[in-house]
Write a structure and sequence with these properties.
10 helices, 9% helix, mainly beta, 1427 residues, 35% strand
């Protein structure tokens, strides 16, 4: 009675009109949903389902099985329980009749509102208890492991257990039953022996297998090969479950089992993870992070085996966002949002009122999972559910859609689910109409009709009844009742464009105006047909591709359905997956076979048809992979390592990328005893290493290796040989104490290096390093037996650490050696990066006796293999003539490149006489050297070998691309760039792309090729006021590199006035230039076709030639005058100076044997280059040089070859003081060379310059060549080695000075000379004429008497602020200051040849006069050249 009353109230509530109020949503949901169930045949089963919500009492619950509703009223075995659950009285299940097994779903329905469906649940029935096979009797050694199999189906596994002698076996950490029913027995003992049987219980009568006997043998016995009894298998499990991965290995000695996940040891500190049953890995409460590849490795002292499997953890679907209830009006568009996650990615489907939603023009899946409903109609009301499912499970969530009458305003909560086209239908709330609504809009017409859109316009309604009218345009397919609505974008707007229409289709439109009172009357309907698509073809249908071979693909397609005329050709576009560049080719017909593709590579294809109007619509991309093939290269970096007298370990790396040609399935190892060519054994493995055991002692074996795919085996490596030991090393005792231990403390680390124990006949398997502050027991680190150094990091500064080192093997750890060190403080200077390799091979001195070194390898050769690999080979003179390695020696290869200069060495170890170094840079020179290590004996590094890797494509684009406009020519630009940082070879050219459309295809851009030695290019005749886009591509001998980033540049809006005038045929007066008549010289009237701009060019050339001729004449005249003046002044040399100066005219050509005939040099005065070129060609070595620190330009001519000889004292001190040469800034002058001046001593009309000794480090505006000495003490010249661009000074016949003078001279020089710097010699190119040339003096030290002669005057090379200096480089650019190097003094052993006597040295005032004269002479030359 109560139920009938509730139904009546619900019916009345539905029929009662709601006026302007929106009715409430109905809360209908499931509180309990069915779950997967395992049922037993003949027993009852229940699938739970319960409905919650305000209307749950009147909801009708039904059940579906495999998508079909069950008729429970006529079913005797199945019935509906009062709460909604499904009860099955007795499950029926047989081999041919399984009516109850399947997928069930619960459905709840409210009449006149809709229905909802639960998630699905699978009912599985356990089959008839039976064994597919009987267990077998087994034997196991005491302490070993064994497996007893119980062969039952998966659904019977939970019902199986084991009995021994009729008693149930209790499972513990030693006995484990696996999910498939198998029993694992580990650490077997005599108590485990006896009869066992597998029992299936709980499915009716008990079912037992046959009894089998387990025999336990004594533990001591012969060695037994390892055998994997039960290994892990790949499986998938949902999150939260428990998984058992078995690994049962039988053998003697009993192996130890270790587990790894993704090549890393399994963290057994996690309480969820444990190893039980001797080797079974148990993981409880699975998480997604537990997925991966698990490897089980069993190892004993003789051999090791490994097996692996993949564990996939499934994550059931979970909602990130559920659908929400929506209010809407008819003709609106809505979106139900649904976002789910899970692994594997869930599939999503939508259900409306329990029935699947089929996508159509009005029901669309958008944003991957969301449901969009277009043009709502009243029948769209109901319950919508998002259902997500993957292998781990399924879930559902629903929402209700209520369509209100037009006069009912939408609540604001509905806004988020509305599309942009209908959101303005939402009102703030229901309200009453205070006045009339507008009448129908008038004159609705289609003003523009296209293939995909229609533009509508109309006029105002006859009666507005208000202001700010808005309009809604309703449209639908002609003849359909489902309308969609589009609103105007602004009040009063009387036009709208309807998009996304279908070509050649009729649509019906009507317009409704609305004001503040609501919607008005509708306009008469207007039916318009869109235009058919013409001209270009449609997409080619049914594009298919099939791989024919590993390098070819055949494509087929059909003629486009809308060809729009004759198809002229088809263009096939294809690209390699992962590549941005797409290639194309023209094909004819309806099929094409593409050849020359890469093996086992995925390609993308698409097709475009062409007719007379151009390209049509492209097809969708079609992906296909070429077939696999055998590898085209052998495994690389193969190494052989002799383990003992019975086994050899072989290691390798896969073939290079790009040569696999498929998925590698295995590696094939063939080996044979040397001398037996026909007898070769084979071993297959999937690992990158393999232990070959069971070999003969002291025998030589050859190995070769090849990689295999499903297509076969690829090429094999060359035969590599190794010889097993005659006898094994002793491991019956622990190793001895390491023979030495060295430590090097840093701020936060200590570098430890050591040498092995002296007794090399005891096996060393590794080293244990322990350290701590004050005690060595805080931290322990174990390293490989080959390692000889280690850096202990993350230490505290200024702390005292105690370090111990012990060698260990399987017997235990040996005697430790102790060392202590104190880390540096933070304030200590930090050492540069420590090269551990260099540190190891250059250990600090220790009193421990070092073993005799080995001979270094010889004949090192570097053979280039590819652009990133070089094969290094060598010979070892300490081996027999056959170069067979029979001991445990190994080789260390180091390599580096000299660019940059501070590159660190990289190293690798090898046990053969060859090694391939990979991952090198292309087109790069590398140097290689090799050393050999045997025990604790090592050799020095061998001679180096060099190899340059091959070129390859540039892997980076040109950089620093800039675009600038050319001054005065706005239609011309200069584009500049820098070479790519990774050119990978010599750049042979550049390609400049430019376009006005940045989105255009690359082949549509304008191309400008440029030579590879150019870094700038000019592009002319561009359009004014236009944005251009530029990018550059470099190429070398191997091909093209990547494109640079796009650079944008906009040309100016207008040309300069003078350029515009020039273009019009006349030269106007602009910029201070005179106006020329149209008919003047060079005008277009005289020479048709030549513009005014060309006239200016001719005039400029004429002026330049005239000025040049005049300048040359002036230079020649000036040079002649200077020569005559110099000759005339030379004749006037006073008798007092003939010995010192006038003697230069004859002494310059004397024989080299007369070393005492020294004289000042004759100088060339070169304005532009400010070089001092010696006219004297005599080869005397006792000369003075002038040097600059600027490197020589290789393109400039050199007057003399550079001589490398240097005086003994200058070479020993390694420093040559420099003098800055100040110059006054002058405009650039033409280059002029004067005639030689044969003497520095000329007329006496120049006044003497008096200088006070400045403080050290100060530089005068003028430089004096006087040395710090008293006026009564002449300063001798100093010997220097000759060099290019040097000032050669040869004082006359020197006499040896006293020993006291020499000692004082050397003392002053050693005090002031900075150490270890050798300035280079180079050309000097000042751009300003020289105004003065003098050397400032430096005060003599107070400790030296004033009478001591100083051989040289050290001066600073840095300019002082305020001093104007000359500059070096091309004209018009800023240049570095010119430095003049003053030589150092010779040592006492050379004074008899180098130092002149006081009587023959120049007076200080004489030098000052000469420099003053030189200054005046240069003023005269400046006046000549500027005239």
């Amino acid at each position: 009675m109560a139920e009938r009353h509730a139904r009546l109230l619900l019916f009345l509530s539905i029929l009662t009109p709601q006026c302007s109020a929106a009715r409430a949503f109905t809360p209908l949901r499931f509180s309990v949903e069915p779950t997967d169930t395992l049922a037993v045949r003949g027993l009852p089963a229940v699938l739970n389902c319960s409905v919650a919500g305000g209307e749950a009492a009147v909801a009708r619950v039904e059940w579906r099985k495999d998508g079909t509703f069950l008729n429970l009223a006529a079913d005797e075995r199945r019935r509906l329980l009062p709460g909604g659950s499904l009860f099955i009285g007795a499950v029926v299940h047989s081999k041919h009749n399984r009516p109850d097994e399947g997928v069930y779903q619960c459905t709840a329905t409210l009449d006149s509102l809709g229905s909802i469906s639960s998630r699905t649940a699978r009912l599985t029935v356990a089959g008839v208890p039976r064994f597919s096979g009987q267990p077998e009797a087994v034997s196991v050694h005491a302490g070993g492991s064994e497996v007893l199999n119980c062969e039952v189906s998966a659904e019977l596994g939970p019902f199986a257990h084991w009995e021994r002698a009729g008693v149930a076996v209790e499972m513990d950490g030693r006995l484990v039953q696996l999910p498939n029913g198998a029993l694992v027995i580990s650490e077997a003992s005599s108590a485990d022996a006896g009869p066992y049987r597998c029992v299936i219980e709980g499915l009716g009568p008990l079912k037992a297998s046959e009894d089998v006997q387990l025999h336990v043998l004594p533990g001591a016995g012969l060695e037994e090969r390892l055998e994997v009894l039960l290994g892990p298998v790949s499986l998938a499990k949902p999150v939260g479950e428990t998984v058992l991965l078995p690994c049962v290995v039988k053998g003697s000695p009993v192996p130890t089992i270790g587990w790894m996940r993704n090549a890393k040891a399994v963290d057994q500190s996690d309480e969820r993870i444990s190893v039980i049953g001797g080797g079974v890995l148990r993981i409880a409460n699975l998480t997604s992070e537990d997925s991966g590849t698990y490897s089980c490795r069993a190892d004993n002292s003789n051999e090791s085996v490994e097996t692996q499997a993949k564990l996939t953890v499934l994550v059931p679907p979970q909602f990130l966002k559920k659908p929400s209830n929506i209010y809407a009006h008819e003709a609106m568009d809505i979106i139900f949002e649904c976002n789910v996650t899970g692994f594997p990615a869930p599939t999503v489907k939508w259900v409306k009122n329990g029935d699947a939603v089929i996508p159509s023009d009005y029901f669309k899946i958008v944003n991957q999972h969301d449901l969009q409903v277009l043009g709502l109609v009243k029948s769209d009301e109901g319950f919508y559910q998002c259902m997500a499912e993957n292998e781990a499970g399924n879930i559902q969530a629903g929402a209700q859609l209520i369509i209100l009458e037009q006069d009912v305003a939408l609540p604001t909560s509905a806004v988020p689910s509305l599309t942009s086209a209908t959101t303005d239908h939402v009102a703030s709330g229901p309200g009453e109409r205070p006045g009339p609504a507008p009448t129908a809009p008038r004159d609705l017409v289609a003003s523009l009709v296209s293939t995909r859109f229609i533009k509508l316009t109309w006029r105002l309604p006859a009666e507005l009844h208000g202001e700010n009218l808005t309009y809604s345009v309703f449209h639908s397919l002609h003849g359909s009742s489902r309308e969609r609505v589009e609103n105007t974008t602004a009040p009063g707007e009387m036009q709208v464009t309807i998009q996304n229409l279908m070509p050649d289709t009729k649509y019906t439109f009507r317009v409704v105006a609305s004001n503040r009172n609501g919607l008005g009357e509708s306009s008469p309907p207007l039916t318009v047909a869109t235009q058919p698509e013409v001209q270009v073809p449609g997409p080619a249908p049914n594009l298919q591709a099939a791989s024919i071979t590993s390098t070819s693909v055949t494509l087929t397609w059909e003629r486009p359905l809308t060809g729009n005329g004759e198809i002229h050709t088809y263009k096939l576009y294809y690209s390699e997956k992962g590549q941005d560049t797409e290639q194309d080719l023209d094909v004819a017909g309806l099929s094409y076979t593409m050849t020359g593709l890469k093996k086992f590579t995925e390609y993308s294809f698409r097709m475009v048809a062409y007719n007379k109007h151009g390209p049509g619509v492209s097809t969708e991309d079609l992906l296909i992979q070429t077939l696999s093939d055998v590898p085209s290269a052998a495994p690389q970096n193969v190494s052989l390592e002799v383990q003992n007298s019975k086994s050899i370990m072989i290691r390798w790396q896969p073939p290079p990328p790009g040569t696999l040609n498929g998925e590698l399935t295995a590696y094939k190892i063939r080996y044979r005893k040397s001398g037996r060519r026909g007898e070769a054994a084979e071993v297959m493995t999937t690992q990158l290493s393999q232990l070959i055991d069971g070999l003969d002692s002291g025998a030589e074996y050859s190995f070769r290796l090849s990689a295999s795919t499903t297509n076969g085996t690829g090429p094999a490596t060359e035969w590599l040989t190794a010889e097993t030991f005659e006898s094994d090393l002793d491991e019956s005792q622990v190793p001895g104490m390491p023979s030495s231990l060295h430590v090097r403390p840093l701020v936060n680390s200590i570098v430890v290096s050591w040498t092995p124990p002296e007794n090399q006949y005891i096996v060393v398997r590794g080293y244990s390093i322990a350290y701590g502050i004050g005690s060595p027991h805080a931290q322990t680190i174990k390293v490989d037996y080959k390692q000889r150094y280690y850096s202990i990091d993350n230490l505290d500064p200024s702390s005292h650490y105690v370090i111990t080192l012990k060698a260990f093997n399987n017997m235990g750890e040996g005697i430790p050696v102790y060392e202590s060190a104190i880390t540096r403080s933070q304030s200590d200077p930090i050492d540069p990066e420590i090269d551990l390799f260099e540190l190891f091979h250059h250990p600090p001195h220790t009193p421990a006796p070092d073993p005799s070194p080995m001979l270094p390898p010889v004949g090192v050769q570097a053979s280039v293999v590819s652009h990133d690999a070089i094969k290094v080979s060598w010979a070892d003179n300490s081996l027999p003539k056959n170069q067979k390695i029979t001991d445990s020696r190994y080789y260390t290869i180091r390599w580096k490149t000299n660019i940059p200069a501070n590159t660190k060495y990289k190293v690798a170890n090898a046990t053969t006489l060859t090694h391939t170094v990979a991952n090198l840079k292309a087109n790069t020179l590398y140097e290689f050297s090799v050393m050999v290590t045997k025990g604790r004996r090592t050799s020095t590094w061998s001679m180096t070998a060099h190899g340059t890797t091959f070129e390859t494509l540039p892997t980076s684009a040109p950089k620093d691309v800039t675009v600038v406009s050319k001054e005065g020519r706005p239609r011309t630009i200069n584009i500049n760039w820098q070479p790519p940082s990774e050119a990978n070879g010599k750049i042979t050219g550049y390609i400049i792309y430019y376009s006005t459309d940045v989105n255009a295809e690359v082949h549509d851009w304008v191309v400008e090729p440029v030579m590879g030695n150019r870094l700038t290019h000019q592009i002319q005749e561009l359009t004014l006021d236009t944005t251009y886009y530029f990018k550059i591509q470099a190429r070398n001998s191997k091909g093209m590199g990547p494109l640079s980033d796009t650079v944008q540049f906009r040309t100016p809006k207008a040309e300069p006035l003078d350029k515009m005038s020039s273009d019009q045929g006349f030269q106007g007066k602009a910029g201070g230039r005179s106006t020329l008549p149209d008919h003047g010289f060079g005008s277009s009237l005289d020479k048709p076709g030549i513009t005014g701009s060309h006239e200016n060019h001719i005039l400029v050339i004429v002026i330049i030639v005239s000025v040049g001729v005049f300048t040359i004449v002036a230079v020649v005249v000036g040079a002649v005058l200077c020569t005559r003046r110099s000759n005339s002044q030379q004749k006037k040399c006073s008798p007092l100076r003939k010995r010192a100066a006038c003697k230069s005219t004859n002494g310059s050509h004397k024989s080299k044997s007369t070393s005492k005939d020294l004289k000042p040099p004759d100088l060339w005065i070169h304005h532009e280059r400010v070089e001092m070129k010696p006219i004297d060609k005599s080869p005397e070595p006792n000369l003075v040089m002038t040097e600059t620190p600027i490197p020589r330009n290789t393109q400039e001519p050199s007057g003399h070859e550079v001589e490398e000889s240097v005086s003994t004292l200058a070479g020993r001190r390694g420093v040559r003081p420099k003098i800055m040469m100040p110059f006054d800034p002058q405009p650039p002058q033409p280059v002029i060379s004067a005639h030689p001046i044969h003497s520095l001593d000329h007329l006496h009309h120049h006044h003497h310059h008096h200088y006070h000794p400045p403080p050290r480090g100060y530089l005068h505006h003028q430089i004096s060549l006087r040395a710090p000495a008293t006026p009564s003490t002449p300063v001798p010249y100093v010997d220097r080695a000759p060099s290019s661009e040097s000032v050669r000074t040869q004082p006359p016949a020197p006499q040896p000075p006293s020993a006291a003078e020499l000692q004082q001279s050397e003392a002053v020089i050693k005090e002031e000379d900075p150490p270890s710097y050798k300035p280079p010699s180079a050309h000097v190119h000042p751009s300003h004429p020289m105004k003065s040339f003098a050397v400032p003096t430096v005060s003599v030290s107070a400790h030296n008497p004033p009478s001591s002669a100083l051989p040289c005057t050290p001066l600073l090379a840095q300019p002082v602020p305020g001093v104007k200096t000359a500059s070096i480089g091309t004209l018009g650019r800023a240049r570095a200051p010119v430095a003049v190097t003053v030589p150092s003094a010779p040592d006492s052993a050379e004074t008899s040849k180098m130092l002149p006597t006081k009587e023959t040295a120049y007076e200080t005032d004489e030098l000052s006069e000469e420099m003053a004269h030189l200054e005046g002479l240069m003023k005269d030359l400046n006046a000549i050249t500027t005239a």
